[in-house]
Every structure is written in structure tokens, then in C-alpha cells.
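sry for the spam today, last one i promise. C-alpha cells for design, 417 residues
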């Protein structure tokens, strides 16, 4: 197996996804060309709906990193970041985006036209340290951009109280005032309700799509998880709802007709932590041994609902909980979520990606490993890698560990190896 490889996709929706990705980045560049204000922001918060409601263009530098990984641009971006003196131990998203914005960011050789320069930066005061530092770097790189310093309480989901929500609501109003001031555009609250309704529909469809993976055999695997692109970049749009409806119909039909990913699904696997964006083909590696990755940590990020009648509070809640649904969550909560997923998706074994460049999601994995074994009798294996840097990943080590792990799981279930 090569170190960098694309995944084999089987859903018809995968083709449509390619078009959506191209259209989104074209739209971002078109916005800049026609003078529609462009704002760069971290993913998974309630600002995206406000941007779409105000006809502003949201751009997600973190999401650009998997695109760079897929197009093989990360080595050159890392080299620039290394040259600027940043440590190679930092988060791969930070290293990639730093190198990208300090390189030939809009060169004609950059796929999809690259990212348009930001008019606005939403600099987060919460989330993990690297995500905050990414925006500090961007502020220095784009001194002309207007900066909104968001201030949200860093509070575990299970500890959110009324005063946290009230404070987040006041921050959403401060954001709306800031955007009105710097763009001269007013927010139409009826339009915001429509956008939040679309966002809520996307979340409901997302949950429904994921629920079909509980079927045995599962109708699609983690190799198709790129569908989350619409949840990151298109929440609050009809386009996202239409795409997810088509995905839902396709996976429902597959699930109900017993059409699995491979002919004979023998082992159901859970993937913990971020995928290796430069080698999504890893998710297909298990298939020759009858293994299918039917659930993963990342997909929990959009398992939430929004009340369109109360849109500002809904977005405040989204901002408080969607990032912690994946990272910045207590070890106890993370353990609870992984165990819940392993129960619900009838998992036989878990792959724990010990991600060198994402400490927040890697923290607590030994506790999770122990809990899986003791409470569910689910064995797990640790894979050392990095979600962005292939230099921190050994194919040989991966194959050796996975082959032995799969052999043990197959034997446990009484299958031939
Ligand atoms: S959560 Fe992990 S991957 Fe995401 S920005 Fe923070 S350190 Fe990087």
C-alpha cells in the first residue's frame, strides 16, 4: 500500500460531492471578485448560518487542509512553515495553513483557485490552542482584515448552564453588530430563521444517514466520510439539504436491501480520531479481511438540533457544543461517546488513531481502550500516525498491527483468516 492513496468510494453521491466541492471553492473566489465580503472562520460554530443569512462568504481554512492533503500540497506548505521557525510537532492544520498563506496562495497552479484573501477574520477565544493560534497567525498575515475576537466559555457539554447560553447569545448579537458595521449589511431575522431551519434539516438528515450504518451489513464505510464537507461548508443552505437527502435515499435503499460495502461483512470496526487525509484509502485496507469501518469519532460533530423559531439562541448553543462534540471534551465524556457508538453500531474492534498532531482528540485514549475491553469486551489497537503529515506514518507498521488485530478479531468471531 502506498503512503498516500485515495479511498475507493461506492456511493453514487460521491460523484455529486466532487461537484459540490468545486462549486464551493469557485463561489468563494467569485465572491471576492464581485466584492461580496469574505470571512475566514473556524469550523463547527454558529457563524456560518449568520454569514449565509447576510449573504457573506464563509471560508474555512481548517477545511482547506484536507483539500491540500488530497491534492498533495501539504509537503510544500509544511516546508514553508518549517522555514518560518514553527515546530514540526504542532497541529498539521496549523502547519499546513501557515505555509499555504505564506506561499503562493493564489498561484494558478493551486487547485480550485485556492482561497480568496479574507476581508474578515473570526478569531476564536475557545476551542483548542492550535485553532486559536491559527487565527493569530492569520491576523498578522492579513493586517487589512477586520477581526472579530469571539469570546465563548470553554465549558464541557454536560456542564453547560443557562448563564453560559445567555453569554453565548450576547456574543452572537455582538457578532451580528460587528458584521453589520464592517459590511454595511443588515441581518434579516426572517431570513436567519429560514437558514437555521435548513441547518436543522441538514443535522436531522445527518443523524438519519448515520443511523443506517447500524444495519448489518453497513451500507457505507468511513471511506465515504468526505460527505461531511457539506456539514462544514454548506450548513444553512438548500444545497446541503438536497445533497444529504440524496445520500439518505441511497443509503436507506442499500441498508434495507441488505447491500453492504463488501460481499461478506465479517468484522465491524470503529475509527477513533481524525482520518489520515492524505491516505483515505486506509479505510479500504480492512476490506480484504472482511472488515468495514462503520463508525468514527468525527461524525458526532453534527449530531445536534437547532430551533429555527429561536435562531440566535440555537446558533449560540451550536457554537457552545459542536466543537466539544469532537474535541475539547472531557475524557469521561469522550469515553462515554465512544462506548455508546460501539454499542449502537455493534462494533467488533476499535482502531485508535494516536494522532501525533492532535493532542485534544488523542488525550484519554488509554482510558478508552481499557473501558472498551472491560465494559464491552471490544478489543482495540493503537495506530501511530498524523492526520496531515505522512512523515509521521509508517505503512509497514500500520499493516503489521492491523493484520495481527484483524486475525485476532476473525478468530474471536469464528471466521477463517
Ligand atoms: S482539534 Fe486537533 S486537529 Fe483540530 S485544530 Fe485542534 S489540535 Fe488541530
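last one done:
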Amino acid at each position: 500500500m502506498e503512503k498516500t492513496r485515495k479511498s475507493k468510494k461506492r456511493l453514487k453521491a460521491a460523484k455529486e460531492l466532487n461537484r459540490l466541492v468545486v462549486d464551493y471553492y469557485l463561489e468563494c473566489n467569485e465572491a471576492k471578485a464581485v466584492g461580496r465580503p469574505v470571512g475566514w472562520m473556524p469550523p463547527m460554530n454558529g457563524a456560518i448560518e449568520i454569514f449565509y443569512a447576510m449573504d457573506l462568504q464563509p471560508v474555512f481554512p481548517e477545511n482547506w487542509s484536507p483539500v491540500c492533503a488530497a491534492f498533495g500540497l501539504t509537503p510544500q506548505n509544511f516546508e514553508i512553515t518549517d522555514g518560518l521557525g514553527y515546530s514540526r510537532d504542532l497541529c498539521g492544520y496549523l502547519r499546513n495553513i501557515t505555509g499555504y498563506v505564506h506561499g503562493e496562495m493564489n498561484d494558478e497552479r493551486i487547485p480550485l483557485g485556492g482561497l480568496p484573501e479574507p476581508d474578515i477574520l473570526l478569531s476564536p477565544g475557545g476551542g483548542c490552542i492550535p485553532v486559536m493560534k491559527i487565527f493569530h497567525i492569520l491576523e498578522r498575515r492579513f493586517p487589512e482584515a477586520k477581526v472579530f475576537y469571539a469570546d465563548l466559555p470553554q465549558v464541557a457539554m454536560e456542564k453547560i448552564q443557562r448563564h453560559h447560553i445567555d453569554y453565548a447569545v450576547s456574543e452572537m448579537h455582538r457578532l451580528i453588530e460587528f458584521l453589520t458595521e464592517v459590511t454595511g449589511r443588515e441581518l434579516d431575522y426572517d431570513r436567519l430563521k429560514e437558514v437555521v431551519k435548513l441547518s436543522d434539516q441538514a443535522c436531522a438528515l445527518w443523524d438519519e444517514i448515520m443511523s443506517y450504518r447500524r444495519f448489518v451489513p453497513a451500507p457505507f464505510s468511513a471511506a465515504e466520510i468526505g460527505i461531511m464537507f457539506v456539514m462544514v461548508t454548506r450548513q444553512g443552505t438548500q444545497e446541503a439539504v438536497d445533497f444529504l437527502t440524496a445520500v439518505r435515499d441511497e443509503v436507506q435503499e442499500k441498508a434495507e436491501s441488505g447491500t453492504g460495502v463488501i460481499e461478506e461483512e465479517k468484522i465491524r470496526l470503529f475509527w477513533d480520531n481524525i482520518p489520515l487525509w492524505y491516505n483515505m484509502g486506509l479505510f479500504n485496507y480492512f476490506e480484504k479481511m472482511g472488515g468495514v469501518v462503520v463508525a468514527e469519532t468525527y461524525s458526532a460533530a453534527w449530531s445536534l438540533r437547532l430551533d429555527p423559531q429561536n435562531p440566535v439562541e440555537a446558533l449560540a448553543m451550536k457554537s457552545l457544543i459542536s466543537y466539544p462534540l469532537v474535541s475539547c471534551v472531557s475524557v469521561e465524556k469522550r469515553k462515554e461517546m465512544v462506548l455508546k457508538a460501539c454499542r449502537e453500531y455493534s462494533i467488533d474492534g476499535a482502531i485508535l488513531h494516536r494522532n501525533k498532531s492532535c493532542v485534544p482528540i488523542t488525550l484519554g485514549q488509554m482510558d478508552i481502550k481499557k473501558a472498551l475491553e472491560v465494559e464491552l469486551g471490544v478489543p482495540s489497537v493503537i495506530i501511530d500516525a498524523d492526520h496531515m503529515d505522512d512523515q509521521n506514518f509508517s505503512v509497514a507498521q500500520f499493516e503489521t498491527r492491523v493484520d495481527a488485530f484483524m486475525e485476532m478479531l476473525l478468530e474471536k468471531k469464528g471466521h477463517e483468516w
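The CA atoms of residues 410 and 417 lie 6 Å apart. ok im logging off now
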